[in-house]
Amino acid sequence: MSTRIHPTAIVDAGARLHPTVEVGPYTVIGADVEIGENSWIGPHVVLRGPMKIGRDNRIFQFSSIGEISQDKTARYDDATSVEIGDGNTIREYVTIQRGTLKDTGVTRVGNDNWIMANVHIAHDCVVGSHTILANGTTLAGHITIEDYAGLGGYTLVHQFCRIGAHAFTGGGTVVLRDLPPFVIAEGQPARPRGINSEGLKRRGFTAEQIDQIKDAYKLIYMSGSIMAEVKEKLAEMARSSEHAGAMLRFIETSKRSLSR
């Protein structure tokens, strides 16, 4: 056994760990767990397969990842799993659960996410890359969080909702409907409050691009137009703004509708 694995850790013979993986005291890693190079697994972590974890991840103490979901129909022998990409930080007491046979069977987390303490990611969720999920954020089943989204502490997201790229929620927000890209929301239930201008500036969006996104936001939320008219006008704006186009595509594929 590698000296990088603490002698009190229990690693199943069916687990596949790159030789550079470090495992802390009293951690339990089950069969069919694969962990990529340079990942660090802290003390008292429980990892249950089937699960694939990429490289350069950090998983802190008392996290439980890969356990069967809290769906009452879930069984240990279901053909379900968790897939986690590269470069993620997963802090204390995070829970990420396997998918269900009612959906794809896979719960997915992308790359370079910052997942803070006590976050819960339920079955069949898809979390993109470069997201920030602050302490206590809770995702019900079948949720999609797109790239660069940020969820404030103790945000609660209803099952089947989608949070668009670069969107942001305030602390304690309850999301019951889909939240389009770039939009800030807060409240219980969530209400749109503007666009994530500061976040967009930090990510290199130009002043012109931000103004175009503001115009699209005003059309969706402040014009008083019915949704059919909003879509028609967004389609016109999309000819000169890829980001207006992204908002239009999000609306057209929304399954939970928008909070307006």
UniProtKB/TrEMBL annotation:
Family of this protein: Belongs to the transferase hexapeptide repeat family. LpxA subfamily.
Protein name: Acyl-[acyl-carrier-protein]--UDP-N-acetylglucosamine O-acyltransferase
Entry annotated with the keyword Repeat: yes
Subunit (UniProt): Homotrimer.
Catalytic class of the enzyme: transferase
Function: Involved in the biosynthesis of lipid A, a phosphorylated glycolipid that anchors the lipopolysaccharide to the outer membrane of the cell.
CDD domains to which the protein is assigned, alphabetical: LbH_UDP-GlcNAc_AT
Pathway where this protein functions: Glycolipid biosynthesis; lipid IV(A) biosynthesis; lipid IV(A) from (3R)-3-hydroxytetradecanoyl-[acyl-carrier-protein] and UDP-N-acetyl-alpha-D-glucosamine: step 1/6
A GO MF term: acyl-[acyl-carrier-protein]-UDP-N-acetylglucosamine O-acyltransferase activity
Species assigned in the record: Solimonas fluminis
EC number: 2.3.1.129
HAMAP family: LpxA
Ranges annotated as spanning the membrane: none
InterPro entries per the UniProt record, alphabetical: Acetyltransf_C, Acetyltransf_C_sf, Hexapep, Lipid_A_LpxA, Trimer_LpxA-like_sf
GO biological process assignments: lipid A biosynthetic process
Chief location bin: cytoplasm
Gene3D superfamilies assigned to the protein according to its UniProt record, in alphabetical order: Hexapeptide repeat proteins, Udp N-acetylglucosamine O-acyltransferase, C-terminal domain
Taxonomic path: Bacteria, Pseudomonadati, Pseudomonadota, Gammaproteobacteria, Nevskiales
Subcellular location field: Cytoplasm
